[in-house]
Predict the structure.
Amino acid sequence: MNSFNLEKERLEAYAAKEGKKLLVCEAVHPLGKESVWIDAAKDLIDSVEIVREKIGAEKALVLCKGDGKAFEDAAAGKAIEVKTADDVEYGMPFMAPTAVGRYLNGEQGYPCLDKPICTPDGELVCAFLPSAIIRLSGKLPETREFFVNDTNKVTVKQGQTWAEVAAAGGVAEARGVIAGFPDFDVFGEDELAQSFDIWSLEGDEIEAFDANTCITDVALKLITQCNDQTCGRCIFCREGTLQIKLTIQDIQNGKANMESYNLAVNLAKQMVHQTLCGVGTQAGKLFLELADKFGKELEDHITSKDCKALSCKKYITYHVLQNLCTGCGKCVDACDEDAIDGKPRFIHVISKIDCTKCGNCVSACPEGAIVKAGKIKPPGPMRPIPCRRKD
Ligand code: SF4
Ligand code: SF4
Ligand code: SF4
């Protein structure tokens, strides 16, 4: 969870340094979105001011993407400058303090091993994420904004449970939650009734999912984000995120086996220790936590060809329920693959060979007679037979 002790150590180390210092608040969203902190600009700027004084920096800089007016208004009259960093290519790697230092020196915003880094004016760069700045200021607001599943902005009160936050974000019956980058903490169903400290989370993203979402889709989405963001400097991040992404795709497509899955788990263990910044480290940690909390579901795909969420196309089939079909033929019109056989007042039948599992027929059927099935298939005729429904 949070690295508060490390932050405090960094704060104390910065405070102990002699010379000019620049406090930088990295309000650049890791995925390039508008910062969630715009809605809490005053709280953030107040905390920046407190931390600036704590470390003895002459001035502070808030880096953001897009419109920084909310931050500028809140910073009026203070020794705080707001700068939009729209030219930053990579959001996640940019969250490393060394990347910020390079950026302020006119270089690409990638992490590096050189520490400390000074600006061209000779100021020592002291960089923190917004959540860290709030924690270090000691002035913790009672609420905090998060994005749930990318776009649902939710105001979370101190002490709310994971389940409540997921519901506020549109997932009423969550079975899992992942606190997003840069932490990637994974919580299973039995942990969702726990309340949590909103200020213990580094990032502003929360991923919530219910029984209709397959864990492979959640894993693929987040690992792809990491793979998209890798700056390529570390082989375990560059290749590791790619290999894990390919393994997850193989699991979805029925091409993975337990050997390839275990190889990906071992690779993830290496990534945690062999990468320069949080992107590679957290991508590895994410896959390890998913394997720990949702490993059975991942393994069921591989060993039992079973996707309980009925999401992975490889493991599902579409069927017409014989007691509901009226033989209206609307599903035939909706199917571009000519995969449905039938005639008026006959129970229609879907060909397992021709069906591409697009799902178009499900929404076209006025009777709700077409369903997806996993390992257990509903009974039905092999070829069209007269309908049983009399209405
Ligand atoms: S961990 Fe990934 S993003 Fe970070 S420096 Fe290494 S390659 Fe770049
Ligand atoms: S799922 Fe798509 S391809 Fe399959 S029967 Fe329905 S409409 Fe046709
Ligand atoms: S499955 Fe639905 S759409 Fe297709 S014939 Fe039967 S009732 Fe009509």
Remarks:
- Residues 4-137 form a domain with the Rossmann fold fold (CATH 3.40.50.11540).
- The chain has a mean pLDDT of 93.
- The pocket of iron/sulfur cluster (ligand 2) is lined by residues 318, 334-335, 337, 339-340, 350, 355-361 (CB under 6 Å).
